[in-house]
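Whether sequence alone determines local backbone shape is best considered at the level of individual chains. For completeness, the protein is quoted in full, as a sequence line and a line of structure tokens:
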Amino acid sequence: MDLLSYRGPGAAGGISAALSSVWTDPRSSARGWWYLSENTLRFSPLPHAPALVTDAGAQMVKAHYRFCNEFLWPLMHELPKFCVFRPDDFEQYRRLQSSVSKQLLNRREHLFIHDYQFALLPSLVSASSSLFWHIPWPATVDEIWQPLVSDLAIRMLSAEQIGFQTEEYAENYLRSIEPSARRLAETKVFAAPISIDDEMWECRLSESTVPLPTEIAQLECPFVLSIDRADYAKGINERLGAIDVYFERNPDQAGKISFVQICARSRTGIAAYDRYWEQCRSKERAINARWCNAQWQPIVWLESSFSPDQLSKIYLKAEALLITSLKDGLNLTAKEFVACQMTEPGILLLSKETGAFSELGGFAIGLDPQSTMSIVKAIESGLSMPTAEKLRRIDAMKVIIRQNSLISWSSKFSPPQNNGPADVIPLYQTRKEKTY
């Protein structure tokens, strides 16, 4: 089985790290990895060095990037006010995938394709394929975009298997397809939330000699942690507003708790992201100016990137992880945090709009990211929770994560066995029975 994704080995982000673990694990059937790097399509066959396959062209890659991040991303996160559609970008989105498919013509390995950047590929390649959709699929889209979304959904049906992070996203996808397309469906559509290598995170804590980063070690009070890209879907502005209200309701906590925000700029050059960054930083400065004193400030904003070893120590030190995403495919940070908790754990404060909530929501403290008071009360509840209760919840979440290992997740997308139609859940049957 070959992996195919937008970013490859060593790239930033939880998805690349998860796929790297799958790719290098001897128990996995994944051996080759196709990906884009510096405007070129590359192929890395284990254990050999990556080979340059073809130059995709800087302008084509740039237009493809714009279509993905200025149109598909906000559309799929149900934030249409951020959508910018350019017909030429859409054309380049299609052309880039057509170009990639030509490099795969003589390849017979089953393809495990990842995410919205390559959603058309199942319909363009001759090899069998599985597709995993990492981000949400919206419940509704504006009428003007429905034909485009429906066409995208139908093209995805060329894959033998399509996985989503939650049953909700899978059902939304199925509803976006016209009933007449059911006759095409020999495709298994199911929920299969991606996981993490929890044993690796635990090993980092026990074996790594990397110290706690200086910026964290120098804090003189406990802290609530958040880790995000500066993305409007992450609800950072809403979180900052809630922190302000938290100190209004709990003025005695000034100087006793800080909120550490690890967050760097994202997708620089895209106007909506640049504006969002400035809005968030301006709000953070105003809140700090309102509440800080000579020895303390409520929000500690760190733009630095940290290694996984460093992150494991930060997770362990935090009183809580606060996630306020307005909409999120999964949020692997939530699982990483849980994996790094030990005998005196922190607690997970988790937006109900994340895919992770469908797995961990029974034991995390849930919150509505659109409600300031919901976020505030989640913070108050988490910081006052007894250690025994936090430990009970963390242990339960660890069991859930361990039962859905990365290898068991990836095995669901291995080449379908040739056992006839009984192995496949047709689309109409999936719709009727809601079987995943």
